[in-house]
Amino acid sequence: MSVEENKALVCRYFEEWNKGNVAVFDDLCTADFVWHAPGGLEQHGAEAAKKVFTRFLTTFPDFRVTIEDLIAEGDKVVCRCTRTGTHKGEYRGIAATGKQLTWTWMSMCRIEGGKMAEQWDEGDHLHVIQQMGAILTPGQG
Fold it and tell me: Is the predicted pLDDT of residue 40 greater than 90, yes or no?
C-alpha cells in the first residue's frame, strides 16, 4: 500500500471509533493485531481489542477522536490527536464524575497487507485524572 493509502486506513479506523463501531476491528485489523497500551499493557487479536474499546465506550459513551496531525512513512502512520468524552463510567478505579474531559494522545500504527497490524498508544492519563478531580493540578489546593 502507498503512504497515502496507509494514512487513509488510519483515518477510517479512528472515524469508526467516533461512531462507536467496534465491528470495524474485524475489517481493518489483522487477525494477530497487537494493541500496545500505555504502561506496557498489550491486547492481542481483534477480539481482545474490541473488548477493551467496548469497555472504554461504557466509560466515555460520547468519546471522540480528532486527528490534529498525521505523518506517515513506509508501513507506519503516526497521529497526534485530541480525545474528548464525558466520564460516565468507572475509569481506573475512579467513579463516574459526569465531567467532560479533553486530552491529547499519540498513536503509531503499523500497516500490513492493507490492515492495522500493530498500534502503539501514549496519552496524557495524568491530565485525564486531574480533570476528574482525583489528583490536584499544580496551584490547586
Answer: no
